[in-house]
Amino acid sequence: MSDGNFNRQLLPKNELSAGLRAGKAQMRTRAEQAFLQVLTDELPQLAEADIARLHDKFMQMLRQPS
Q1: What is the SS3 string spanning 23-52?
Q2: Which tens digit of pLDDT belongs to each residue from 12-57?
Q3: 30 near 15, Cβ under 8 Å?
Q4: C-alpha 47: how far from chain center
Q5: pLDDT the model gives residue 20
Q6: Is 59 helix (H, G, I), strand (E, B) or coil?
Q7: DSSP letter at 6?
Q8: How many contiguous H segments (helices) and E segments (strands) does the chain have?
Q9: What distances in angstroms separate CA 28 from CA 4, 32, 40, 54, one per listed residue?
């Protein structure tokens, strides 16, 4: 019997869990695009190598479990 806590592992393997994964991927893509836009708009003096390094670090942070 559930105690009211939400547990993703209890979800059936169907469209619901696939939708959850798709939503996470979409939000990750949007976050990546927003981060790159902020870097180029707010820090135009950054070199391409610096932008790539910061982008890689940001993506690694997104992939880490919270």
Answers
A1: HHHHHHHHHHHHHHHHHHHHCCCCCHHHHH
A2: 566 777 788 888 899 999 999 999 999 999 999 999 999 999 999 9
A3: no
A4: 24
A5: 83
A6: helix
A7: -
A8: 2, 0
A9: 28, 6, 19, 16
Distance CA 54, CA 66 (A): 20
* Residue 54 and residue 37 in contact, taking contact as beta carbons nearer than 8 Å: no
Predicted local confidence at residue 65, as pLDDT:
81
Q: Which residues contact 51 (CB under 8 A, 6 or more apart)?
A: 36, 39, 40
Q: How many CA atoms lie within 13 A of 41 on its CB side?
A: 6
Q: How confident is the model at residue 4 (pLDDT cuts 50, 70, 90)?
A: low
